[in-house]
Amino acid sequence: MKLSARNQLRGRITSITKGATTSHITIDINGVIITSAITNEAVTDLGLEIGKDAYAVIKASSVMVGVD
């Protein structure tokens, strides 16, 4: 599968926390943890499990930065 998003970061799933309708998935990418919120149905459809390799695909129209 090819995607237009250029920020495709491969890592390993370190946790899956299921809620009523949404799960929070953490992916360890070389020591950096990225968290994604996806539907419980998507977790099942993708066969996600702790320890499995996965990609964090990031597509954003803007990134904001703030300082004090």
From TrEMBL:
NCBIfam families listed in its UniProt record: Mop
**Gene3D superfamilies the UniProt entry points to:** 2.40.50.100
Q: Which residues form the Mop domain?
A: 2-67
Q: Which PROSITE patterns match?
A: MOP (PS51866)
- Domain of life where this protein originates: Bacteria
**Record-linked InterPro entries:** Mo/tungstate-bd_C_term_dom, Mop_domain, Transp-assoc_OB_typ1
Q: What is this protein called?
A: Transporter
Q: Which SUPFAM superfamilies match?
A: MOP-like
